Every structure is written in structure tokens, then in C-alpha cells.
Fold AcrR family transcriptional regulator.
Amino acid sequence: MTATARRGRPGHSLESLLDVAVAVFNERGYDATSMDELAGRLGITKSAIYHHVPSKVELLRLALDRALDGLFAVTEEPAATTGRAIDRLEHVVRGSVRVLVGELPFVTLLLRVRGNSEVEQAALKRRREFDRIVTDLVAAAEDEGDVRQDVDPAVTSRLLFGTVNSLTEWYRPDGGLSADALADALVATTFDGLRTRPRRSAVSRA
């Protein structure tokens, strides 16, 4: 007789449990959500939840890691590691929009983290590392002459990803706007102000 994998109740995999948990965390707040409430929302007992995870904080860790892993994966793609910095920066922005659209509830939860626990502090540390990667790309693009140099790279990075992150406040998957179309619009409106332009000569202005 072959060994079989341990399974939870039918219809309640770790994936479905995590989806519901994140929805409730976003709706009520992580601290205000009890395991009893999660069990009630799922229609199962708490013991069925504990079959998959040892605690509520583990659900939070898994959810935050899912959002962060997606963002860091973008920075490791070939288009984000080779070529001119401005093109790599654009790739990271476009990829981040795709992650946000694909993992909207998880990214929303990540952006609401305030560092109230070790898990949240670890997530914030990883967010700062992601911010540093973006800031370094902006600085490199400045050095290469493709991005205007009159704004601090850290400020540019915050403004750029402040725009990306604001999508969680209004974007709706059923609104008919694809991730690519959303990324196109965001890049068109933000990178136009970032890029340097060659000065027109006195003759050309005449």
C-alpha cells in the first residue's frame, strides 16, 4: 500500500484558505480577525485550519511572502538585469504592475503592513530592499544620462512606486483594463517626466 499525502477537508486547500484569509484581513484588519471568524467564513472548524497552518501569523507570513516574492522575481528577470538602466527600470515598473494586478489582495495587504509583529517587520525590511533596488536603477539611469538629475533618485523612486501602489485603491480586475494596458498608461504618464530631452538649439528654435 503506497503512502498518500496528508489532505485537508475537500474544497479547502491551503491556497483557498489563504485566499479567504487575505480577503478577511483586508476587510477587517489582521489584528481584528480571529481564527474563529476565518473558520466561520470558510464553513469549517478551527482544527481544519490548523491542519494546514500552525497559527494565524503563519497565514500572514505566507500572504506577505507571496506578494514580495512576486516583486523580487521581476527584479531577477533578464530584462531587469541587463541593458540600459532606464529600460531595466521600465521593466521593473511594468512587472510590478503585473504582480499587483495578478496578486491584488496580497499586494494590498502588504501595503497595509505597519510593523506590528516580527512577520510584519520582516516584510517591511524586504520592501525597503526592493525600494533600494529601484532607487539604484534610477541613480544608474541618471548616471547614463537618461533620467533628469534635478530630483533625488530616492524621491523619484518613491514618487514612481507611490503611483504604482496607488492602483490598489481603485483598480478592479473586472473593470476591463488589462495589466499590460494599465502598465502602458502608467509608463506613458510617468516616464515622460523622468526622461531627459536633448535641448533644442537656437537655430532650431528660430
About this structure: The CA atoms of residues 90 and 116 lie 33 Å apart. The radius of gyration is 21 Å. Residues 118-143 form the longest helix (26 residues). The chain has two domains: 11-54, 60-194.
